[in-house]
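Z., the sequence and structure:
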Amino acid sequence: MSDVGSVWAVAQCCPRAQRAGRFVAGSGAHPARMLPALARRLVLTYSNPGDLVVDPMCGIGTTLVEAIHAGRHALGIEYEPRWAALARENVAHAQAQGASGHAHVVTGDARTARELVPLALAGRVDLIVTSPPYGASIHGNVRRSPDRLIKWDNQYSGDRTNLARLRYSRLLPSLETIFSECRHLLRPGGIVAVTVRPWRRADALVDFPGAVVAAAERADLVLSDRRVALLCGLRGDRQVPRATFFALERMRYAHRRGVPLRVIAHEDVLAFAKPDDETAADRITDCDAAC
């Protein structure tokens, strides 16, 4: 896996190939899975072997799987029981494959994370990794029939209290609450690593990464590192597209209306440190050799 400066090439293999054999059947049903290579890079960059890694919105457990394969211990919180059950299966699968770390999955709301994590772990978490939702339906599975498109597993949830179902104006305060919960869990010098991308609303680009930075800072976290994770592959000087059908469909629809949109092919990696700790910068390590 190669880097160019602070750019991480985490999509050299397609998502399906990255997950093959590493995750149980049915994991592909989740509509917005983090790339395993990206989760692995986050864990290796911002934590050390034996550390405790938490993902407060863990989905099918990608972060947990990569953490325990890397010799860390992990805890995941997932709001939807369906995905929490898959996360537990993926953790068990990783341990059966020889992962040396241990992980536990709790079903619950990240907005009340401190109530869900054992009291003994409060203030002892080394790394929190997460990615906020981008809307109710932007990923999923699709196939063409002779007369229509058939989409499935393209919704996070039917529950309107799920973060992915909230209006943007309500999502940001919820993220601030989650960051506050994360700060409570972190040890001094601990890191919150967030992957987030800009998105479009009515063809206008929404600076979601900037909004996430502001929400984290309101929760008294300090931005300590920022990188870019490519969602396309690289072959020399050529890009290999990895865009989903839904992203391409949105772009084509805009082009038919004369709006020259392009597919977003990166995510921002934002690392925040718990404040009042001079060693936070030392937690950001070079993992080239490990990758």
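Helices lie at 15-19, 36-46, 62-69, 81-96, 113-116, 168-185, 208-218, 245-256. The chain has one domain: 3-283.

Let me know what you think.
H.
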